[in-house]
Structure formats: C-alpha cells, structure tokens
C-alpha cells in the first residue's frame, strides 16, 4: 500500500481528494492537514510515502513544506496539486525538491497514477507546463525580496514590514526597490502583481 498524507486548506477539496483516493486499491490515506505546519507535523509523525499538497495554504506554502521535508532528510516524496499553471511555481517547486506537479482539473485516474509513479522514485510534470517554465526563465527574486513583496501585497507599510521581519525600514525600501527593478515594475504594487502572475510569490 502507498501511504498518503493530503494537505489542503479548503475542507471540501480536502475531503473530496481523500475520498476519491481512498477508492484506489493500493492507496491509503493516513493523515489530512489544513495548513503547512500541520502537514510537516504529520509527515514527521507518520512518515508517509507521499505527501499530496496544495501550493497556497495559510502560513507555509506547499513549496515551503517540500523544502522543509527535504531539509529534514525525510523519505516522503511530495506532489503538488494546484489550480495554478504558473511556470514560476513549477520552477520554485522543482528547486524545493518536489517530485510531482499536477493541476486540480486532472482526472482522479491521472492523480492516482502520478502517486504510483512518484512513490517508486520517478517524477511527474505535465510536458506543456515544463516547457512554459523553461521559456519563462529563472526567478530573479531573492528569498528576502519575495518575503517583503508578500507583505507589501497585504498593504502593510514599510515600518510594519520591517517590524515583522526584524529589519530596518530603510532595508525594506531597498528590497522593494531592488525587486521592482528586477521585474521592470514602476512601484511595489506593480512588482507584486507581476511576481504573483509569474508564480514567483
């Protein structure tokens, strides 16, 4: 049996995924999580073969979770299932050690087969999305620039962003200016919009 933990912040989607996969004769759901922190905790406690996770969840994203699992040298392999066909997300997922990347509109048979493929050590990525990621190029943002842009997207002033990240307000201004320059954006709002549309946030 392939032991699975499913992480998804929308309860209805989480329940549907778990119910559909439970019908597969060689797959068993051993845990369900509603956010990234809970997903990491379950993976550490249960050591499933595969973690099936959404990309955008409260707190830690699916990409953050995959990176944490890799850093902890856990054997669990990660598949991201998302509505976002953004090349930047795929590139970041690959860099975080994700083993599979599927869109939520894929048939459940495709998902089940992807789980089987990943469980035996292979990777699953839709060819069209892989090609788009190749053409899109590398993510130009640093981790700190990405964190600052995410908070700026929430409408927080520089002083509050600085407080949350334990940095000086002037440093926040520099990070925002650098991010905008890399993206060819005129201001922080445009920079956040461009980075989000390309999957870099």
Written overview of the protein:
The chain is of the alpha/beta class and 201 residues long. It folds into 2 domains: 2-136, Rossmann fold (3-Layer(aba) Sandwich); 143-197, Winged helix-like DNA-binding domain superfamily/Winged helix DNA-binding domain (Arc Repressor Mutant, subunit A). The protein is 54% helix and 13% strand. The protein has 10 helices and 5 strands. It has helices at 11-22, 36-46, 62-71, 87-95, 108-119, 127-136, 143-153, 158-165, 169-183, 188-197; strands spanning 2-7, 27-33, 50-53, 77-82, 100-103. Strands 2-1-3-4-5 form a 5-stranded parallel β-sheet, with helices on both faces. α4 (87-95) links the parallel β4 (77-82) and β5. α7 crosses α9. The longest helix has 15 residues, at 169-183. The protein is elongated. The chain starts with a strand and ends with a helix. The mean pLDDT is 88. Residues 134-199 form the HTH luxR-type domain. Pfam families: GerE, Response_reg. This is Two component transcriptional regulator, LuxR family.
């Amino acid at each position: 049996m392939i032991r699975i933990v499913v992480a998804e912040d929308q309860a209805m989607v989480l329940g549907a995924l778990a119910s559909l996969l439970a019908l597969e004769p060689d797959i068993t759901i051993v845990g369900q999580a509603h956010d990234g922190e809970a997903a990491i905790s379950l993976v550490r406690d249960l050591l499933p073969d595969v973690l099936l996770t959404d990309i955008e969840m409260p707190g830690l994203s699916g990409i953050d979770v995959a990176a944490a699992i890799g850093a902890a040298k856990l054997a669990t392999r990660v598949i991201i299932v998302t509505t976002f066909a953004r090349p930047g997300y795929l590139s970041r997922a690959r860099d975080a050690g994700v083993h599979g990347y599927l869109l939520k509109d894929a048939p459940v048979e495709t998902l089940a087969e992807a789980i089987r493929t990943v469980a035996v050590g292979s990777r699953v990525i839709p060819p069209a999305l892989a090609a788009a990621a190749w053409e899109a190029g590398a993510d130009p943002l640093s981790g700190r620039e990405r964190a600052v842009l995410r908070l700026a997207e929430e409408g927080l002033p520089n002083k509050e962003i600085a407080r949350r990240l334990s940095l000086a307000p002037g440093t926040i201004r520099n990070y925002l200016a650098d991010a905008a320059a890399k993206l060819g954006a005129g201001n922080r709002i445009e920079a956040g919009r461009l980075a989000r549309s390309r999957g870099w946030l």
